[in-house]
Each structure stands twice: as structure tokens, then as C-alpha cells.
Design a protein that fits this description.
Elements: E1 9-10, E2 25-26, E3 30-35, H1 41-56, E4 60-64, H2 69-77, H3 83-88, E5 92-96, H4 99-102, E6 110-111, H5 118-131, E7 136-140, H6 142-149, H7 155-169, E8 172-178, H8 193-196, E9 199-207, E10 212-221, E11 230-236, E12 239-242
Parallel strand pairs: 3-8, 3-9, 4-5, 4-7, 5-6, 7-8
Antiparallel strand pairs: 1-2, 9-10, 10-11, 11-12
């Protein structure tokens, strides 16, 4: 007798979201979170790691390539998230990928040097993931990888390498990227990120009664059933919340 295969799930830690993906992200998948500036991509990604530790005891790594680790910690304290507490416990690691690029000294435990090539960049992330036995990984953001490695013209090759090593590590990963004009179908900076990732979540704005409202759309998620509707979400005092019953058509 053959039993039905059940896909192992990783809870997102985002209220309302897991209902839209049949109980959580497929374990070990790579998800692209895309959207215009200010849509909540970094909050979504960091919440995934922070709540992974707080609620499910799953260590996580955050690679921050757009702002210094110290600034990221400060911003996330606004949600009541004490990232530093879990860093001291060895359950969260923040890799500072900004300081060296802008020529600032860094006192962080994990720092990317300013002149790493693609292979060294990926190898360093791999080492940190293994060092804390991470189950979750965030890289914020893909355009900053291209800028940092001066490989923008070879971004496809870099992303293919990145996706391969993420799958090899077995972590469940979120990558963020910019969506310049999602209303016109351009949902990523380079137009190829969505083809490499196994899942794509779009965060965007829609105008309702002379006011901008946030919405979320799952464009793709392999290995699971998922909704294809637009759902409202808000960034509250304690993080991001999705409203599965409040569909935007």
C-alpha cells in the first residue's frame, strides 16, 4: 500500500500567510519576495527569520546588503523584536555586507569583505549557515549582490550559483528584489529572478478611495497548492499581518 507523499512545511511566522500556501513554505525551497520600494520586503524577510527562532526554535541567517546590521537591529526593535538576544544565543546570525563596501569599519561577528568574488561570497554564507545550523536564510537583496560583486552583466550566472548552493544547504530561503513596475508585469529588477526561485511572492500597493493599500500576491510556489488572489496586508506594531478573508480582486 502506497502512502500519500506529504511535503514537509516551514511556517512563515507571518499571521494569515500560511493559509494561502497550504500550511507553510515547502521545506528547503527558495522564495523570491519582490515589490516596489516601501512595500515591506525587508520586514517580511526578517520576520520569517525572527519568528522562526521565537516560535519554532529554528536558527536563521540574515545577509544584509542594503543597510548595516546595527541599523537593521534598531529598525526591527520597533516591532518588539530583540534580534540581539538571539544572536547572543547563537540562533540568529547577521552577515554585514554593507560596511566594507562603503569603507566603514565593522564590529560585527560576521562581515563580508569588500572584494569577494562570487564563489567566496557564497562560500562565506555557507560557512555561517553551518556554524549556527541554520534552517532559514534571508538575503536582502539581489540587486545589491550584483552591485557588490560588480557582476550585474552576469547576474543570471550568479543567481544560478546561488540557487544551487541554497538547495544544497537545505535551508528554506527568502531572497528580496525590486519590482520596478509590477502593474505592467515587470515584477523583478532583472527579469530573471522569478524564473530561478521556486516561489514568488509579490508585495505591492493598490489605490482605494484616494489611499494606497498594501496587497500580497503569490505568483508561484512549487510543491504546493496556493491561492492566486490578491490579499490585503498591513505592517502593524508587531510585524506584518496578512488578511486571507479580505480578497482584493
Amino acid at each position: 500500500m502506497t502512502g500519500e507523499w506529504t511535503v514537509p512545511r516551514v511556517k512563515s511566522g507571518i499571521p494569515g500567510f500560511d493559509e494561502l500556501v497550504n500550511g507553510g513554505f515547502p521545506k528547503g525551497t527558495t522564495v523570491l519576495v519582490t515589490g516596489p520600494t516601501g512595500s515591506g520586503k525587508t520586514t517580511f524577510a526578517v520576520q520569517f527569520v525572527y519568528k522562526g527562532v521565537e516560535l519554532y526554535d529554528e536558527p536563521g541567517v540574515i545577509v544584509t546588503l542594503e543597510e548595516r546590521a546595527v541599523d537593521l537591529r534598531r529598525e526591527m526593535r520597533a516591532f518588539g523584536w530583540d534580534i540581539e538576544k538571539y544572536e547572543k544565543e547563537g540562533k540568529i546570525a547577521i552577515i554585514d555586507g554593507v560596511s566594507a563596501v562603503v569603507g566603514l569599519p565593522s564590529e560585527e561577528q560576521y562581515v563580508l569583505e569588500g572584494n569577494l568574488n562570487t564563489e567566496d561570497f557564497l562560500r562565506y554564507i555557507y560557512r555561517v549557515v553551518k556554524a549556527i545550523d541554520a534552517k532559514r536564510l534571508v538575503i536582502d537583496s539581489i540587486p545589491s549582490i550584483a552591485f557588490r560583486l560588480k557582476k550585474e552583466e552576469e547576474i543570471r550566472e550568479v543567481l544560478l550559483q546561488l540557487n544551487t548552493i541554497l538547495l544544497e544547504m537545505g535551508v528554506t530561503s527568502i531572497l528580496t528584489t525590486e519590482a520596478p513596475e509590477p502593474s505592467r508585469g515587470k515584477i523583478s529588477r532583472y527579469g530573471i529572478e522569478e524564473y530561478i526561485a521556486r516561489g514568488v511572492v509579490l508585495l505591492d500597493f493598490i489605490e482605494r478611495e484616494v489611499e494606497l493599500k498594501r496587497y500580497l500576491l503569490i505568483r508561484k510556489m512549487r510543491e504546493t497548492k496556493h491561492s492566486m488572489k490578491k490579499y490585503p496586508f498591513e505592517i502593524m506594531s508587531d510585524g506584518l499581518v496578512v488578511y486571507p478573508s479580505g480578497e482584493i480582486y
